[in-house]
Amino acid sequence: MRERSIRIVAAPFLNTRPLIEGLTAEPPPGVTLELCSPAEGARRLAEGLCDVALLPLAAYARQGDLVAVPGVCIGAHQVVGSVLLVADAPIDELETIALDASSRTSVVLLKLLLLARRRPGTPGPRFEARPPAELAAQVGGRRGALIIGDAALAAVAQRSYPHVYDLAGEWRALTGLPFVFAVWAARPEVLDAPLVALLQRSLLRGLAFLDPIISDAGRHGVTPLRANRYLREELAFQLDDSLLKGAEAFLQRGALAGLLPATRLRLVGDSPTPLDLHERLDAAARGGRLSANELVTLGERADLVALGAAADARRLSLNPSGTVTYIIDRNINYTNVCTTACRFCAFFRNEGDDDAYVLSRAQLGEKIKETVDAGGIQILLQGGLNPALRIEWYEELFRHLKESYPIKLHALSPEEILHLCRLESLPLETVLARLIAAGLDSLPGGGAEILVERVRTKIAKLKCTGQEWLEVMRVAHRLGLRSTATMMFAAGETLAERIEHLLQIRDLQDETGGFTAFICWPFQPGNTRLPGGDGSAHAYLRTLALARLALDNVPHLQASWPTMGPAVGQAALHFGADDFGSVMFEENVVSSAGTVFQMDAGGIERHVRAAGFQPARRDMGYHALVEEIA
């Protein structure tokens, strides 16, 4: 077919079998097919780890610069049978809905249907992301579950639910239109005529060989009788004009609700829609959701002042009080022993090094007492991955600190949590639950760096993957912990990879709502083994403004004056930030690379007022402690 190889990904569901039949029965030379969840396929396409993906429609909109193969889709003209909300109570009485977040299209569709039904002034249900295997067990009382794919077909066969809502049928009732769940999508330069023809032929072969696929449905947990109705009557695989209208209606409604970027389904051969920078900046300033392509284009082409003005308008709409918050806490690094040896870190030491340490309780107590005496209410406790410190050490320490001092514990990055999981051979949820019981109050967002695997492999190949970092946060949020999210940039990533990092944060926030704030700073290369990129004030302010526009669902952005200096921190308050971070009693990690800026509470308040805002002390939940301000 062509000299270079083509990597294609699709989900391993029964409904994808007709589309991939021609790719599996007779694999063309140079073409490889990999099966993974819809969400994982979307991530691979976004990170450049595949060329073509059978992409959920919401993921298509998220990317913004893709084209779709004409005439091929996974859709439904009426009911679909495999995208179901199941519950023991009626939909209007549900308080919680467990979500299978592996297909964001189904989640967005559910939210649109709920918005259409909701009475003014009434709260909607709480959403809770769960692994697919756990969803059916979540149903009970006023808890429902969104189940998709083969699991949905099996769920209704195994149990009779009092209330079953077929989302494609509900969409048809609401709009009078069919629904499109997924399309073959790629960047325009990839989908040439031979590849389009290959994917179209693969579907034709699949439709001609439905009988063998139906006979093999047992491997999907579906009977041949049910599979026959599903594949021949409920699903629609040929993207016709009516399905295109349904897709356009979904994209439009999703954009109006702020759930999707504004986009259209562009087929191969269609002309691209010109991007109006001023219109997109205005839309983003009003809270409109931007696609990856729009954010990259703004980052490359928008004037810095115009970008900052849009971010400032967005900050004002999210935080209209005119205050800038800060917290009195202390960043205590309890150990510098670490096995990860990140190339960008000048802080870590190996076991046995002369300057390796673990702080004693007496040393910790002295630091905490000084913080409390200065009005501090929280300790940020992070360290290296020290194999000598077992989970019991953390539990005993947390209990001691909470019993001894009036503080909150904002402690342990996702990397440290995963280290304990590996060290103790315990599940993530168990480790988090034990630490919460011992006194953990919230999680810092350290260790995120850039949540793209090419970059992580380059700068810290022993560190957790981006998906593992996100999973720690997902489970922590489900258990009731709030957390921050971070990004260390200028470490060899591209602008597109920086934007992908931001959108992965946004995606998880859509699921959980558990991030309180976002903090970014440029990599500090001093005393490290990694060359630095552009860490200038200009690059920082540009990145911060893009973050404010990208993270439309994260309420707060923090100015990183400890790395950039107080003056740039003041400027950041006009480029999207509404928080001035923490009083810096001490900082050991960034300062190991040679960057040291310190300020007490009085200095923070003077700088905030000089920037035109009213300072207000806060807690980790960003609740202002107004009584603390003189």
Structure description:
The protein has three domains: 6-76 and 179-273, 3-Layer(aba) Sandwich (D-Maltodextrin-Binding Protein, domain 2), CATH 3.40.190.10; 83-175, 3-Layer(aba) Sandwich (D-Maltodextrin-Binding Protein, domain 2); 308-628, Alpha-Beta Barrel (TIM Barrel). It is built from 24 helices and 21 strands. Strands 1, 2, 3, 4, 5 and 11 form a six-stranded mixed beta sheet that branches. It is globular and about 75 Å long.
Topology:
Elements: E1 6-10, H1 17-25, E2 31-35, H2 38-46, E3 52-56, H3 57-63, E4 67-68, E5 74-76, E6 83-87, E7 96-99, H4 104-117, E8 126-129, E9 143-148, H5 150-158, E10 163-166, H6 167-175, E11 179-186, H7 193-208, H8 210-215, H9 224-234, H10 241-256, H11 277-285, H12 292-301, H13 304-318, E12 323-327, E13 329-333, H14 361-373, E14 378-382, H15 391-404, E15 408-411, H16 414-424, H17 428-438, E16 442-443, H18 453-459, H19 466-478, E17 482-489, H20 495-512, E18 515-522, H21 537-550, E19 556-558, H22 561-564, H23 566-572, E20 579-582, H24 601-610, E21 614-617
Parallel strand pairs: 1-2, 1-3, 7-8, 7-9, 12-20, 12-21, 13-14, 14-15, 16-17, 17-18, 18-19
Antiparallel strand pairs: 3-11, 4-11, 5-11, 6-9, 6-10
Helix pairs in contact: 1-7, 4-6, 11-13, 12-20, 13-21, 15-17, 16-19, 19-20
